[in-house]
Each structure stands twice: as C-alpha cells, then as structure tokens.
Amino acid sequence: MIELSKTKIVATIGPSSWDENVLREMISNGMSVARINASFADFDELKRVSESIKRITARVALMLDTQGHKIRVIGFNKEKEIKKENPIIIIPQTFAKDRELSDNYIPISYPSLHKDITRDAQIVLDDGNIVLQVKDIKGEEVFCTVIQGGILKPKKTVNVPGIHLNFPSISKKDADDIRFAVDNNFDFISASFIRNINDVAQIRKIMGNTQTKLIAKIEDREGVDNFDQILNFVDGIMIARGDMGVELPLWEVPIIQKQMIYKCRCAGKPVIVATQMLESMRENIRPTRAEVSDVANAVMDGCDAVMLSAETSTGKYPAESVKMANDIAFNCEKVLIPQKVTGYTQASIETDVLCSSLFDMSDQLHLKGVVILSKTGKTTQSLSRHRLNIPIWEVGNNIRRIRQNALLRGVKGYYLKDLPQDRDTAVKRAVECVYSYGELDLDDKIAIISGSSITNKSNNTILEISTVKDIIGL
User: Fold this and answer.
1) Cα-flanking dihedrals φ and ψ of residue 393, to 5°?
2) Do residues 220 and 248 lie in contact, with contact meaning Cβ atoms separated by under 8 Å?
3) From CA 383, how far away is CA 351, in angstroms rounded?
4) What is the pLDDT of residue 151?
C-alpha cells in the first residue's frame, strides 16, 4: 500500500482520466481533490465526471475551475507563421466581420484592446511563445511588430502584461458555471484571474449562501498587488503560475510563490501551487530532474497542495503522475523540520494560542498525533498551518467539511454521523474511530483538542494529553 504524503494532490480530470479504473488508481495514489476545468467542459461533462467521483468515494473533494477572462486569437482555422519583424495588425472580431483581410491581420476575442493599450506595450500570444510590440493605434486597428516569432495555431491565448483591461467582473459563462457548482454541491470553486476584492464580491454574490469554498487564482500583476486584501475575503489561494509567468517576468514567479505561501500559512488558509509541475509526464513515464525539484521546493516552501493539470487530464500517465507527486512530497517531508508561523486565523485568539502551544509540546512529549473535534474546522486550519511532522486527525459529523479540510496539509478526516454532545463520550468515540483504522496503537500518546463543556461556549479551548488505552478503556 502506498504511503501518502501530508502535502495534498489536486488532479485535473479530463479525457485521460475519465475511466473509473483510472480514477480509482489516482485516488489510491494520493489524489485528494478532483479538479474539473470548466474552460473545456460543458454541464453534461461536469455532471458526469462529478457523479463518477462520488460513486467511487465520498472522501475526494470536487473543485470546479472557472474559465475567467481568457482572450484568444480567432477567425482562422489553420496555423500561420508569424515571422520576426513582420508587421501584424491586431483587431477585434467585430472589425473582421464581412471583410477580406490579409494574413497579417489577427482577430482576437477582446473587443476594446485599441481603447486600453498604449504604444510600446507588448502583446503575448500562445503563453509567451510569440511576442508583439505595439507601434501605433488607428481606430480599432493595433499595429505591431514581431519581437519573437513562431507558429500561431487557432484559438491560442492572448495576454497583455501590465495593462488594465476592462473586463466585466464575471462573464456569463463563469456565472452559469459557478451556479452549477453550488447547485451540485461542489466542495470548491477556483475562480480564475481574481484581480481585487470587487471580483471576489461579485463571485460571492453569485454563490449566495453556500458551504462551497472559494479559492482565488492569482494570475496577473493586479492580483499580486492586491493579494493581501484578496486573502482576507476568500477561503484559499491557488498560485496559478501559467498566466502569471506570462503576465509577469518569469524570475518573479518563484519569489511570489514563496511570499504567498507564507502569507497563506499565517492566515491558516490553504494554498495550492499549480501549473507545469510535472509537465513532461504528459508524454513520458518519468519527469525531468528540474520538475522533481519544482515539486520538492513547493513542498519545502510549505504549500498545502500541489496541482497537476494536463499531466492527468490529457497526458499519457495520469495515475503515475499522481504517484510521482506523492512520492516526491512524501520523501521531502521526511527531512523537513516543522516551522511555527505567527499571526491570527479565523479561529478565536484562544484557539490560535492553544495550537501554537501544542506545536511547542509535540516534540517534547513525543506525541503520535492530534485528534481534533471541531464543528467549524477552524481549529484544524489553525493547527495545520504550523506543518507538524505528526498527523492531524479531524473527526466530525459534517462530511462536506471533512472533505474540504482534507485539502489542508497533514490533515486526515474521519466522518462520524452521530457524534455525541457529551464531550467525554465524543472524545472516546473519536479516538476509537481513528484507532479502528489502524492509525494508532494502545500505548500511543496523543493530544486531543475539543470544545468546552461550558454551556454556550463555542471555542475549542480544551487541550488534553493522554494515551489511547486510557481514553478507550482497554
């Protein structure tokens, strides 16, 4: 049986992983969250894939990833060569309608680029493979010269680094996808191109009153600049390095990654590192050494989860990619020394201080692990952020929250439908549950965090140290 890492794995589901046997293998290899990219899926596919996951297990969380404001080249069906120093004219698709245009015209799906862009700005096509520089703007035509040429295929992406584009906060497609995710009880929505708290507010309004958690994808300069504010109003962060590496200089991305991970840890909110982690495994059974180092560094930085995209959605080796990510994380974690962080989470100050104190005690008392009884999951978030080397077992009667907190590093959830109201009885049942799964031996010493028996007091403020046999009476 594969030993699973404390760092969680988010895997994108696509044609390579639709088969239920492949999904089962991916789950066995360590997939904690199944991501479905709405950019390439209609409602029928979203429903089919989500139901397939639910048939296999109730433990794997479902994440819907919105398309966001992607600009694409349109209006041609065959690839075209873009030669260096050639003149290129970027136009909106409406301009191209009913006109005979030469090959140096490239229509795009954004209607008002000519209003937003300035001379000398750069336009980047196909994730940075082709770079244009703006020389002049006449009406709706944006005249460019080619700085870096290449072969341009239909429907490739368009980025305009450093320029504020006047997108609506939410496209109709994204709004419809968000409502679908909420109505179908997805555990997470990862929202693309979150630039500021206004974007967050618009998404929250569409989501309404729901248990679905909101993950903000940070992908451009505005999102980076407004990160501290965004973090306060979302449930977690995805560091989406694909578009970020096009919108910002590439060498800034690893620095931003480390800064964002640390800030998320301080706030006790899950952080996912995404894009091209094991990219070569789309075609090869083994990753490059650089990719292994990339995954390892994300784990060492302290992320909660790493994400696989094309590796598991369209690649040849989806299950093997999950196993590789798990193996890298598991072996890195063996040599890591826990590092306590400061700051306060959404839990109470008493809970944060209690969890900080438990961090200090865990090594001295040689604890096997921590059992948390929590109604809201906030205690689990507060403790997980310190990245203990011992496991955290969360026991609760809300299966959806158990799935959601499974995104947190080092946390393993157990569902008890009937969790007693009496504290002592609840602690005994919780420890018996963890023990029954073979996680504990009778002589193991554990910590238990639970709520108070004082009437009307909701905070988790009781920390108890005990052996397993003393709790369950054997």
Assistant:
1) -105, 115
2) yes
3) 9
4) 94
Domains parsed from the chain with CATH numbers: 8-68+169-333 (3.20.20.60), 71-159 (2.40.33.10), 349-472 (3.40.1380.20)
Residue 165 is inside which H or E element, if any?
none
Interacting residues of 151 by C-beta distance below 8 A, sequence separation 6+? 79, 80, 81, 82
Give 449's pLDDT tier (boundaries 50, 70, 90). Answer: very high
Looking up tokens 């209003």 gives 115
Residue pair 157/186 in contact (Cβ under 8 Å)? The answer is no
pLDDT band at 420 (very low <50, low <70, confident <90, very high): confident
DSSP label of 73: B
Please give the Cα distance from 103 to 88 (Å, whole number). 9
pTM score, whole prediction: 0.92
Spatial strand order in the sheet of 369-373: 411-415, 392-396, 369-373, 445-451, 460-467
How is residue 469 written in tokens?
Answer: 């046999």
Mean pLDDT of 361-388: 92
Provide the 3-class DSSP secondary structure of residue 355. Answer: helix
Phi and psi of 214, rounded to 5°? -105, 120
CA distance 272 to 440: 29
CA–CA gap between residue 269 and residue 343 (Å, rounded): 12
The residues carrying an active-site annotation are 35, 72, 217, 275
Contacts of 453 (CB under 8 A, 6+ apart): 422, 423, 462
User: What is the separation of C-alpha 258 from the centre of its chain, rounded to a whole number of angstroms?
Assistant: 15
Tell me the per-residue pLDDT of 263-301, one tens digit each, with 9 for 90 and over.
999 999 999 999 999 999 999 999 999 999 999 999 999
* Max Cα distance, the chain (Å): 85
Task: Work out the average pLDDT over 142-165.
Answer: 92
Contact of 469 with 443, CB cutoff 8 Å: yes
Phi-psi region of 115 (alpha: psi -120 to 50; beta: other; left: phi over 0): alpha
